[in-house]
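Async update (no meeting this week)

Hi team, since we skipped the sync, here's where things stand on the single-chain job. The sequence we agreed to prioritize is pasted below, unchanged from the tracker. I ran it this morning and attached the output directly underneath so nobody has to dig for it. Comments welcome in thread, and please keep replies under the output.
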Amino acid sequence: MSRRRERAFWRGASQEDRYEYLVDSPYALDEIRQFHEREERVLIELLQYHVEQKKDIAFIEVGSGPGRIIRRIVQLILENPSTWGEHLKFIVGVDFEFEMIRRAIESLIQRERKIRNWTMRGTAHEVSEHIKTSVKEVKKNVWKRIFFIDANVEKPYLRTEGITPIIGIMFGTLGNIRRMDQVLSRVGDLCWPNGEALIVVFNREDYHTGVERYNQLARREFEPLRGTVWDDVKGEFTSPQGFYSRWFFYDEFKELLQAYFQKDFETTPLGKSGFFSIVKPKPTPRRVLANVVRGKKNEHYFLQLRCPNCANRIEDGTLPLHKSSELECVGRQKHRFSVKEYMGFRIPLLEVE
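Output:
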């Protein structure tokens, strides 16, 4: 792209446009794209293991952003209908910004989405051309299993029944959340009894990479990163605009996860800039009592939303949402929620009205 055209783009670009350009496009920094590729390989291997075991899976990504991971998984389902298509029953993207969810949906279904001066091919159309079937048939085969939730990402809460949940918290998303204990506790609940979580964080020993990265992005007028500073005592990046990112030492990350998950897991480098762990939930009396054993013939697969404020069931909150644009939890306080429909997707807005 010429500098003249690039300057013209920046003058009218929103912060969301700038984020995608700098982090999720062919023009992203090389080290960001390499990090993406590494963590995608780890996730695909994890899902592939469960598919080969013929387990039925729900993949739930906390911090799904503009849909990079979800696009990749949808493509695998459509290209492998007898394996991935058979066993990956649900794909759920959880994000706390509706704008990111909107962009994820657009990148799934539009033929060409021109942002700045690069073109993103919509997944449905791209795969349609690859497997020589109609876009309508592609959507029919996969749309019924994709859901998005606009939620307070610090408190994701979704109940799975009769299915193996695989949770993804990727590209350092965990470090962007100040109350990580709430997230990790809920992720343990999501995984129970037979699921796993892939958690990726950035390596504190390589913090100078973060300094360079955030300075480069700030110079490119990504407003939230302007004035970002590193606190060597806390291991945190912060900015006056509210940006927050915590980076971890190896032992620090492992100790954090041991409080919420079974201890027999490995923490593995993801290049020089990060670590990942694949963890399983700890058994607890509460979860054991909640476990429902079902015979094979009577299995019923569903995802049930829970209230992030009181953890009670949300009435009519089973995905996909059909019945109402107004939801209410069954708890004593009866927290109320709304549903927003965008391009055929009904998205629960899990925020108290």
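Quick observations from my side:
The first strand starts at residue 57 and ends at 62.
The first helix runs from residue 3 to 12.
Reply here if anything looks off.
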